[in-house]
């Protein structure tokens, strides 16, 4: 049976805006290592469009080693994008979903030895609501941002988690892995 893991960044005060974070070479290396263990990553449209940035990093000779390594790993993993507006992905390793999130997740989860990553807040919230998320991995950036959406904004009931792992990266980022208790 497959394992569904959401890996997402947030600030100390709970914001998840990618423009408000401070990723460094250790964060990029952590996520590259994580993605190498994955089978597929699922995105919503907004996050997918943000991730297109990494396609350009592959062609930038001035990219630092860790950014390039992350971009190369991200490029290699298959991506499934959930969107009502996109007509194409313009990324050879990405395709648009042709059925619902629930149908896709049930199918992927039924496959042996699959690791399914969730890279979008909206998909994370939906899968928590459906009680299908197996693990939540937060990369907490060592900063407080003045604005942005809260990561768990919109959840109207309590969800309890059990700690799996806490790891501190050299730049002060904290990796917190949690299991939801359903």
Walk me through this protein's architecture.
It is globular, with a radius of gyration of 16 Å. It has 182 residues and is α/β, with parallel strands linked by helices. Strand 7 (160-168) and strand 8 (174-181) form a beta hairpin. The protein has helices spanning 25-36, 45-51, 53-58, 65-76, 101-110, 121-129, and strands spanning 3-11, 40-44, 79-82, 94-96, 115-118, 135-141, 160-168, 174-181. Helix 1 packs parallel to helix 4 (65-76). The relative contact order is 0.26. The model has no long low-confidence stretch (mean pLDDT 94). Strands 4-3-2-5-1-6-8-7 form an eight-stranded mixed sheet. It has a single domain (13-115, 128-162), classed as Dihydrofolate Reductase, subunit A (3-Layer(aba) Sandwich), CATH 3.40.430.
Question: Care to give the gist of this entry?
Answer:
This protein has 182 residues and is an alpha/beta fold. It contains six helices and eight strands, in the order E-H-E-H-H-H-E-E-H-E-H-E-E-E.
Structural key phrases:
Dihydrofolate Reductase, subunit A, alpha/beta, globular, single chain, 8 strands, eight-stranded mixed β-sheet, 31% helix, 182 residues, 6 helices
Helix share bin = 25-40%
Taken together, the total number of domains comes to: 1
* Mean pLDDT across residues: 94
Structural class: alpha/beta
User: What strand line-up does the widest sheet have?
Assistant: 4-3-2-5-1-6-8-7
Assembly state of the chains shown: single chain
CATH topology: Dihydrofolate Reductase, subunit A
Q: Please summarize the sheet with the most strands.
A: 8 strands, mixed
Extract low-pLDDT stretches: none
**Which overall shape is indicated by the principal axes computed on the Cα atoms?**
globular
| Number of continuous helical runs | 6
- Return Rg in Å: 16 Å
Beta-strand portion reads: 25-35%
Distance between the termini: 18 Å
- E-strand count: 8
């Amino acid at each position: 049976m497959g394992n569904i893991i959401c890996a997402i960044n947030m600030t100390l005060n709970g914001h998840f805006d990618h423009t408000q974070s401070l990723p460094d070479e250790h964060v990029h290396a952590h996520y590259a290592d994580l993605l190498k263990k994955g089978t597929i990553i699922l995105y919503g449209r907004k996050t997918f469009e943000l991730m297109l940035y990494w396609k350009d990093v592959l062609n930038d000779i001035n990219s630092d080693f860790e950014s390039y390594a992350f971009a190369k790993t991200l490029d290699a993993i298959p991506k499934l994008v959930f969107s009502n507006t996109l007509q194409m992905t313009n990324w050879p390793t990405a395709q648009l979903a042709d059925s619902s999130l629930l149908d896709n997740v049930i199918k992927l989860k039924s496959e042996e030895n699959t690791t399914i990553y969730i890279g979008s807040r909206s998909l994370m919230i939906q899968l928590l609501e459906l009680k299908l998320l197996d693990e939540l991995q937060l990369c907490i950036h060592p900063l407080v941002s003045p604005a942005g959406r809260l990561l768990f904004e919109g959840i109207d009931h309590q969800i309890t988690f059990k700690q799996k792992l806490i790891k501190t990266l050299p730049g002060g980022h904290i990796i917190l892995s949690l299991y939801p208790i359903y």
